[in-house]
Specification:
The protein is of the alpha+beta class. The protein is 21% helix and 51% strand. It is built from two helices and five strands. Strand 2 (29-43) and strand 3 (46-60) form a beta hairpin. It is elongated and about 50 Å long. It starts with a helix and ends with a strand.
């Protein structure tokens, strides 16, 4: 469920969007994964709200700031709440990497 929500939201940004890994040749792309899923609300012992905690990673050979901003705005418009973000550089592949974590409750 959460995977399809993320793909549908991020696909219009015009870069490849994949769950966990990307094996293509594009120099700019997005990957994501769910690092936690838990019940958030219950009624009469039934879970009525589920929280999804996801990491969205933007990968690029150059400045990824414009795409990072688009990802943040797009996901916030879909109801995601950004909790953390970290700038990284993968020296072995010379790729800039922005890791952003979001929560989403449905």
């Amino acid at each position: 469920m959460i995977n399809s929500i993320l793909v549908k939201a991020l696909k219009p940004l015009g870069v490849p969007v994949f769950w966990q890994t990307y094996l293509g040749t594009a120099q700019t792309y997005i990957t994501f994964f769910c690092y936690n899923e838990q019940g958030e609300a219950w009624a009469e012992n039934d879970e009525i709200a589920t929280g999804y905690y996801v990491q969205v990673d933007v990968w690029s050979k150059g400045d990824n700031s414009p795409l990072v901003d688009q990802v943040k705005l797009t996901l916030e418009a879909e109801g995601f709440k950004r909790t953390t973000a970290l700038d990284l550089y993968e020296s072995d592949t010379q790729i800039y990497h922005k890791a952003m974590r979001f929560s989403y409750v449905v």
